Amino acid sequence: HSGTVAVDPRLRVGLVFQHSGLLPWLSATDNVSIALRFRGERQAIANAAATDALALLGASGIARRYPFQLSGGEGRRVEIARLVAGHFFAPPRRVKINAGMNAANDLSVAA
């Protein structure tokens, strides 16, 4: 199996890496919507989901900015918005929250 990675397509996991995964030639909105476009969503639907996800994270004001115009925290919000936008269409089966919420630490979402 050298050089091969097998991933179960039913797994719905999102990752935000330590170093930016934003594409420098795309605006914040386009960086969010591109993941949906790769999954086959129409441009208008992908852009609407991106706009909603950025708004949800309080990042509407940076929608037209490019990665070089963003602070580190703003860039993280864009990356998280990309995950959020994708989950509008395929919600995660399980969400882990690393916070002091006792019984709410392990939330399951009906799939």
Concise structural overview:
The chain is mostly helical.
Notes on the structure:
37% of the residues lie in helices and 5% in strands. The relative contact order is 0.18. The protein is built from three helices and two strands, in the order H-H-H-E-E.
Tally of contiguous helical segments: 3
Widest sheet: strand ordering = 1-2
Shape: globular
Please give the oligomerization state of what you see. Answer: single chain
Structural class: mainly alpha
How many individual β-strands? 2
Intertermini distance: 32 Å
Provide mean pLDDT, rounded: 75
Element-level helix/strand string = HHHEE
Profile the largest sheet.
Answer: 2 strands, antiparallel
Task: Note the beta-strand portion.
Answer: 5-15%
Radius of gyration from CA coordinates: 15 Å
Residue windows where pLDDT falls under 50 for at least 5 positions: 95-111
Approximate helicity band: 25-40%
